[in-house]
Amino acid sequence: MANKPEKVSTPSEQAEQAEPTEQVEQVEQVLPAQEPEKVSTPSEHTLHAQEQEIAQLLKGQRKVKIMIQSGRTPSEQCPVALAVNGREFLIKRDVEVEVPEAVVNVLRLAVEQQPIVDIQPSTGEKNIGYKSVARFPFHILAMESDEQMNARLKKKTKAA
């Protein structure tokens, strides 16, 4: 009688057939179940108070009259949406609007990288570089003076 050759199993087959090892049990012992951390969420009252504080800070800033230019593409003709400390602004293009100075700062910081292709005439080699351009080109038409700002703030405090 001929002996049947013993089947040699691969490591992956051995792993499939194996029972849970002591290593797995040890890991479970090392990493006991933990209670999830409690995350505190601000109350509606706290959020409302923060919103009011931000609104007051923006109202106390110098007002700037600007105009955001429209572009050639449809997306460059849509109103511009931006936010300052959670306060949202939707600004129409090609229309004079008065905004807090912080909005102008956000517009100044909104830049995008535009590719520039430079072709060497002698070799025909293309070099691609990038330059920063304003994402929302705009003009400052007028800025509130210190005297105008103080008068506006005094008028608002008297009315309140």
- Main pleated-sheet profile: 3 strands, antiparallel
Distance between the termini: 108 Å
What's the order of the H and E elements?
HHHEEEEHEEEH
Q: Fraction of residues in helices?
A: 25-40%
β-sheet strand percentage: 25-35%
Structural class: alpha+beta
Shape: flat
Low-confidence stretches: 20-28
The number of helical elements comes to 5
Multimerization status:
single chain
Mean pLDDT reading: 81
Radius of gyration: 32 Å
Biggest sheet strand line-up: 4-1-7
Number of E strands: 7
Write the layout of secondary structure elements.
Elements: H1 11-17, H2 22-30, H3 44-59, E1 63-68, E2 80-84, E3 87-91, E4 97-100, H4 101-109, E5 111-119, E6 126-134, E7 138-143, H5 146-159
Antiparallel strand pairs: 1-4, 1-7, 2-3, 5-6
